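Pinned message: reference record for Ribosomal RNA large subunit methyltransferase J
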Amino acid sequence: MNYRHAFHAGNFADVLKHLVLVRVLAHLAAKPKPFRAIDTHAGLGVYDLEAEEAGRTGEWHDGFGRLDAPFAPEVEALLAPYRAAVAAVRARHGATTYPGSPAIIRESLRAGDKGVFVELHPADAQTLAHRYASDTRTKVMHLDGWTALNALIPPPERRGLVLIDPPYEERGEIDRLGASLLKAARKWPTGIYLGWYPIKDVSGVDRMAAALDAGLERPALRLDLMIERPDDPARLTGTGLVVINPPWTLAAEAELFLPALAERLARNGYGAFRCEPLGREE
Ligand code: SAM
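Predicted structure (tokens):
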């Protein structure tokens, strides 16, 4: 387990992932019925952009660091809850903080909602458990996220989301994501699933998306954001998320925020996006 998210917090991939996460959380919180958010690869929850790790890569400068200027009003309206979540975490933990997914989820929880954060790295799981020890709405589990997913669904609330955000250190993790999503969507068909992936060699993403398209009994969306010309399969040139059972507004929202992010986060003048339906129409 060499991957350390502290080097990458706030980068362009986090921006897309956390923006979509916040859109889905807002959708769940729009109804009074309680929900549960399960984060299978949770990380540390809070990162300091002035710490040595973030400083060594400087990745956040080309991610969250590029969002200072406002977007067009219709895009800004979609980003507002994400900006509010970052601001709320900064108010708690300091002005140079960037939130990880557990911190973002926690800001959305109401009294009856639950956040379950699974992390395999022993020290990170301990840090996370310590940070949220006094918050009875949250639970931290030191487990393998892939195994925990199967055990944690369907949750008692029967309403909620699962974020799967693995480090992609091992070969075949993109196919594992597709297979796990298919299996999970069979076990808990009405859950909202967000599966994150990096884009280096797009053929792996295409293969995973085709497997989901063929096998899913539920509707899904593939949201890709490219910030560099994809001409070197060894380089991270984009990122994406598969969202199963997306809120009905998400496709139209993505058609607004994806081009805006592609333009703002583009490197060497290249930015592109894709927003495609997968699986079965509702
Ligand atoms: N979801 C976090 C966020 O958005 O802030 C970032 C997660 S980071 C990309 C991936 C995390 O997965 C790392 O913290 C790593 O220690 C953890 N990890 C690696 N293998 C794991 C496994 N099998 N089960 C659970 N966590 C794992």
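Pinned by admin. Summary line: Residues 73-93 form the longest helix (21 residues).
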